[in-house]
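Section: Multi-chain targets

For targets with more than one molecule, the full set of components is provided together so that the structure can be written out for the assembly as a whole rather than chain by chain. Components appear in the order listed by the source. The example entry contains two components.
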Amino acid sequence: MDITINKQDEKTLVTLNGRIDTSSANQFQQDIAPLMEGDRPDIDIDCSGMTYTSSQGLRIFLMLQKSVIARKGNLVMRNMNPMVKEVFDITGFSNIITIL
Amino acid sequence: MHCEMILDEYRKRMPLYERLNVFVINKLRTCLDENHILVAGLESRIKTENSLVGKLELKGYKYNSIDDITDIVGFRIITFYSNEVDIISALVEQMFDIDWENSVDKRKMLEIDRFGYMSLHYICRIPETMYKDPTMPELNQMRFELQMRSSLQHVWANMYHDMGYKSDVEVPLEYQRDMNRLAGMLELADEQFGRIRKEITDYRRKVQALVASGNFDEVTLDGDTFRSYLELKPFMRLAKKIAAINQAELYEDSLMPYYKILLRLNMKTIGDIVRLRNDCEEAAYQLALLQLAGTGLDIVAYSVALQNICIVYILKKGFGVAGLTQLFTALYGASNYNAQHAHRIFEQAQRINLI
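Its structure, encoded as tokens over all components, is:
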């Protein structure tokens, strides 16, 4: 899983590429640590390159979403491929995280 | 000359004022928190030297010593509703020693044909039973002012102050009538807000009792009744059954976003939702079983239960792919993906003979 994080004005643009699974989840959690800091974050995650997420990935996104809400911020995931979106749908996670 | 002495004493006492300020503001904040009272504002200030000089120039003759000036340290609690002023003042009376001779309830000072600035001003001391610092024994002797007023009374006072007046007698006669009309309107609005809030609180209590009694057909579906119903965790049995498919962790998210969906599905009472659940529960589980079994996904949201119930209901009603697309659009916002998702669910439903 490759992740890039760029600050653009007040927005934090994140790009994800690859799979989040057992072998990559720990590294992914460390990589997104900068997103867990700061007040009123406005985070936009481009998921077009994300090919799969396991439950570990869902837990990390849930943790990020809770952290963003606690800091009165906003989190959006976009351009998810249909296979990945289905994981969010069938687990009910599409009800928790804004996916555009 | 005696004004100079007062100013010297003021400077000497500044550390005491600062200590008093911090102590009282913390006490007030804790008291409001403990009593679950949300206020619009909690302010404090120590009178500046310039402001004190101004006061002494105007009214210096009234003060023999600095102890006669009771508002050097001042606090203000701004409530949302006017009736909360009485609740808070009762708490303040329990906390601090009140100097009743110098406290003023301006709300009671107005004559029946007059409106205007109304708030409650208490002059207080910290009782030794509450706090005693041997290094600052004067702290318990020092008086401070505590003002309590509603948000609208605060607006009134600020407007008045902004126009450069401190009391309604200063307002030019030609504007007095307009000011009185405004004051009357704010007082009426204050009362109405308080009344409406009380009625809503009573309604919510009634609704909770009705929901708890299980007379669901008598409970009209609205935001309050749905929230009360959700407290009974009505979809937990299904959610746990779905979670058990993969021995998954269940994350309890809010079902409130489904309120507007249930209205769209023409649910009129909580009883309608109970029937919806009972009629669709098994098929909703079968759909989850088809989707989740073998995926290894071991975390699911509580909302997946109601999500699947709505899906099944829409399909049973014959609304098909278009109905599902509308559901997903209402839930997740407009997206090209909603139609694809609807098609996929429709195919899955056909495979398990839901349609």
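Residues 235-351 of chain B form one domain.
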